[in-house]
Amino acid sequence: MTGFNTRAIHVGSEPDATGAVNPAVYLTSTYAQEAVGVPRFADYSRVDNPTRHALEGCLADLEGAEWGVAFASGLAGEDALLRTLAPGDHVVLGNDAYGGTYRLLTRVFGAWGVEVTCVDLADLTAVAAGLEPTTRIVWAETPSNPLLGIAPIGDLADLAHAHGARLVVDNTFATPYLQRPLEHGADVVVHSTTKYCGGHSDVVGGFVATSDEELAERLRFHQYAIGAVPGPLDCYLVLRGLKTLGVRMERHCQSAAAVADFLAGHPAVERVYYPGRPDHPGHEVARRQMSGFGGMVSFTVVGGDEAAREVCEATRVFTLAESLGGVESLIELPAAMTHASTSGSVLEPPSSLIRLSVGLEDIEDLIEDLGGALG
Ligand code: PLP
User: Fold this and answer.
1) 101 CA distance to ligand 1 centroid (A)?
2) Tally of structural domains, the chain
3) Model confidence over 210-266: pLDDT tens digits?
4) pLDDT, tens digit, 9 for 90 and up, residues 99-112
5) Range of the domain at 35
6) Which of 68, 92, 350, 374 has its CA 20 to 30 A from that of 213?
7) Do 198 and 237 touch, CB atoms closer than 8 A?
8) Which among 228, 243, 258 is the end of a domain?
């Protein structure tokens, strides 16, 4: 099995003794033991669960990783990974990262003595200047949320490794269908599987993948010792989402490109952020490390915040809501919604920036909806 879609459909879903073509949802908290201390599969579901096991095998395989560890949310996975740090350790973070990652690093790990420097990851001189002798992690989100910035994974891996640090890539926006960071030298991939991996806005989940055995063992330990595990039904939903990830991403990319072109030609639009457009500063790097440019488009409008709020509240097909990556199109104002926690920091997005998650509805309806809202 070599093709992406074939693996997405079959890895972890091999028929069991019953021949069922879908994995069972093992709704169990515990397991019968053959003798004292001799369980058949595991001793307890926080430690292991066959449905979770199936998801972990499938998504790790799609990322080209030896190991994958599933969590109850994207942030729970990030937390488990960051707990491999110690007080005094330092992290270099992209200056346009997801607000929740910034909040976790500064307000939770910051209070514990972890230090963070935010830099423009597309500027390798700035990254090199941001590295400290205590830097343990360079954390890149590419494309980034919400500015769709592109970070050069291979170059960042070289820089991080030369300083004895790991490169972590948040691959939530790209998904392994469009970009596999480990192939470019990254050490760890993190996901909010809530987004494209699940794909239907019906589950919250997270994932960390790596081929570093020692790190994988620490992550597994954190998974059961801290306990932010996803339930079996949630694991099933993400695994089911992965089966259609390839076809969904093809359509997301196609429609997002059409929406970006439409917005770029609209007089009420000031600036469009989409890595698939040749005028995007990261376009060439994105072409090298991605096989498509994704389903997210951001833009600013003429008239500032007030005009942007009006657009967000005027669409009918695009639902005004946080999150992204589902079959339905969503619209939001990051500075007031998903990224409110970055207020006053270098990560604060422009107040008139609108973020779109372009879904799988008919493209004519999406463009007509945006045209109507822009006036
Ligand atoms: N990483 C990115 C890029 C995100 O957009 C999000 C959530 O929006 C997360 C991580 C956190 O994931 P979750 O909401 O599943 O905890």
Assistant:
1) 8
2) 2
3) 999 999 999 999 999 999 999 999 999 999 999 999 999 999 999 999 999 999 999
4) 999 999 999 999 99
5) 4-243
6) 92
7) yes
8) 243
What's the pLDDT score for residue 1? 75
Q: Measuring CA to CA, how many Å separate 222 from each of 56, 76, 279, 339? A: 15, 10, 43, 27
Distance (angstroms) between ligand 1 centre and the Cα of 205 equals: 9
Token pair for residue 319? 């639902």
Domain identity same for 200 and 345: no
**Cis before 143? omega within 30:** yes
One of 7, 31, 43, 46 is an active-site residue; which one? 46
Burial of 87 (0-12, 13-18, 19+ CB in 10 A): exposed
d(CA 70, CA 62): 14
Strands (E), 211-295: 269-273
List 48, 170, 187, 234, catalytic entry: 170
For the beta sheet containing 269-273, the strands, ordered from the edge strand earlier in sequence to the opposite edge, are 269-273, 296-301, 353-357, 330-332, 319-320
Token duo for residue 58: 């499938």
Last residue of a domain, one of 211, 243, 275: 243
Model pTM? 0.98
pLDDT tens, residue by residue, 162-206 = 999 999 999 999 999 999 999 999 999 999 999 999 999 999 999
Report the share of the chain in percent with pLDDT over 70: 100
Taking the C-alpha atoms of residue 133 and residue 90, their distance in angstroms, rounded to an integer, is 8
Write the CATH number for 228: 3.40.640.10
